[in-house]
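Bug report (template v2)

What were you trying to do?
Predict the complex of my protein with zinc ion.

What happened?
Run completed; filing so the output is reviewed.

Input:
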Amino acid sequence: MNIAKVIVDVPASSINQTFDYLIPEKYADILVPGMRVIVPFGPRKIMGFVVGQTSESSFDSLKEIDEVLDLTPVLTRELLDLGKWLAEETLSLYITAFQVMLPQVLKARYKKELERLTDETLSQDLESLFAGRDFVPYEELEDTNLSYSKVQQAIQDGDVTVNYLVKSRVTKKQVTMIKPNRESHLLEEACQELPGNAKKQQQLLQYFIENPYEVEQNILIKKLKTTRSVIKALLDKQLLIASKKEIYRNPYEDSTFEKTEALELTKEQQQAITPIRNSIRQNQHDVFLIHGVTGSGKTEIYLQAIQDVIKQGKEAIVLVPEISLTPQMVKRFKGRFGSNVAVMHSALSSGEKYDEWRRIHRKEVQVVVGARSAIFAPFENIGIIIIDEEHENSYKQEDNPRYHARDVAIHRGEIHQCPVVLGSATPTLESYARAHKGVYKLATLRKRTNEKDMPDVEIVDMRNELHEGNRSMFSRTLIEKMEHRIAKGEQIVLLLNRRGYSTFVMCRDCGHVKECPHCDIALTYHKNSNRLKCHYCSYEEPMPVFCPSCNSDLIRFFGTGTQRIEESLVQLIPEARVIRMDVDTTRGKGAHEKLLNQFVSKQADILLGTQMIAKGLDFANVTLAGVLTADSMLHLPDFRSSEKTFQLLTQVSGRAGRHDLPGEVIIQTYTPEHYSIQLASHYDFVQFYRIEMNTRKTFQYPPYVFLTLITVSHQNHVTVVQTAQRIAQLLQQQVEDGTVILGPTPSPIARMKDRYRYQCMIKYKSEPNLRRTIKKVIRQFDEDMRKNDLQIHVDMQPYQLM
Ligand SMILES: Nc1ncnc2c1ncn2[C@@H]1O[C@H](COP(=O)(O)OP(=O)(O)OP(=O)(O)O)[C@@H](O)[C@H]1O
Ligand SMILES: [Zn+2]
Ligand SMILES: [Zn+2]
């Protein structure tokens, strides 16, 4: 087995296969599939993944592997297989599928070092390598004759580890630790000698008299509500002593989470969890759909099911949509399982992400809570996979590989023979239909755990407001109710449904709309910088003073952004303190969390925001939720627009009155009679499901058919049209009767980043060979893609039809 099969990092379909390389003697003992290597490829040296080994090759004069990057495989056997499956399922390249499963840090080449983890004596050659140091540059290892297998053994024994030196900014985090500098009785004496007014210092000393241990300065400050200057005073008196300590970049200080215990489950919860527990006990793969109203205790069910899995010595993956991966959510998992939880979140720095991944890889944790890509957590003994808010679009990756985390979850669930649990108050029609047919097992939670009714929903017809002379974005009812709440010291959540709306700039004289010069899309006005920005390619320019088309100075912005709403809100209710949450105010790291904390600590009366405020937030003091424009996305050219509207309205309604105070919801709309608005106001999911399924059946949309979207793009318009037409023709010849090929038509955004875009949609009921057919068709354009920058994207499960 002296030959390695390698998938190389060249993202081209002509290279999408394994290449054979000779394994040099020095790597013979240590190399296993799943490791990354550097190999010569043409004139270059590139990275690749070892996916297999063999002793024979049909090629002669093989080149040698240049370097082995990992001493422990970064991809497990299962993940290697999963990568192959993923590539085939989504028609993407093997290399892209492997890359998506790994943290960013492992996708590039970084300097490495060996770190000694033990004080025990190591083998002699390792001792001479470390030569008294704790850290050794990796190159030194490569320069010695030391056998890699010895180092590998030391890593497996936990004596040594390999670190990646991600840019120094994120490599190591140092924290200040504080501990007492004297024995407790001496501290007590000192405490009595402090002046009587030094209450804060006394409190701090008292703490260390009772807890004579080292503690992180920041935690101390939080716990005792004390300050740096108080600590400094005692440091200066040499009663305490400070030191620096390097820590894992654990972004959530575990010790600050209060421990929670399993709650006694309600009847409904028990009924829902029992079959899940059975599957866990019997190592059986089933898919469960928990349809439970907001506040019905789904999360508690997840927590207790995970508890069972941990007891079995197995692992759990919990997926949460990016925007609901809030500190509140993390707290619930860390509160129950403490440091046994890793969190994977896009707001973490690449170093932090790598640390969390490594905790999983080393099996230091049994639970991971994360956004979409956490589905690839390198666990090897999975006992449950949970997808919360399963209807969320963010589970679909809109980039290659275009996968849906739900499909990956079910595939891994089959491999590990473990249950997969999908939960939502508004499941997708696809999932609910499967539950209806018995493919998934359905559990329904009808009641909130606190037995409180869902809040009353009032629909306000904005057309009437207009007729009666109210031109503002706020109905009189909503204003009245807001004023009432503010007077009582209660809080309000206001949602501006922003999809379909934006602040674009238009000339009132000639109607000219300012568009991005590279994309066929209106530019968005940003007031803070007084600039126009493109949300697709990040092009920007200053707000024009004169219309570029007719030179009129009546060029103004239109539409309704959160910023505009905030301004008019403050005009209407001057005493209102408003926190605005949108892409602009939440950009910085931790900004999201900071705004929420301000709201929780009642520094504001109103939380105004886009979709991001509708999910998962749980505020005790919120008694009114308002939706400003319920119908703004009802008319988008997307067959899921009614479903999305229903989901959003239901989610927002769930924000109010979750605790002791009763809640109320106002939905403002121009189409009050629409079924998704009417049924959302009655929380009638099942009726909505029935009506919407009928519509889907009539117009032949999923779940009655499958869709595949092929998008062609190129700088030259003619090339795009011709290619798209040719693809449609070729497909037409090969698909089954009854399969429909729509298009080619221009994509809804017909040009993006200077590239024209056309699309074909395939609608089918059964096409067992579709993937093969598409591959064959696209292969004909290989050369154009390689040499001529033609792009063809295939999405086997399109969600963004725009
Ligand atoms: N068995 C129980 N007994 C008492 N309280 C419970 C129980 N289960 C859950 N709760 C509490 O009820 C509240 C709502 O529960 P939870 O957040 O789990 O519901 P959910 O269905 O996940 O809500 P959402 O869909 O809005 O996220 C929480 O405060 C939770 O602590
Ligand atoms: Zn643009
Ligand atoms: Zn003009």
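What did the reviewer find?
The radius of gyration is 30 Å. The longest strand covers residues 740-752.
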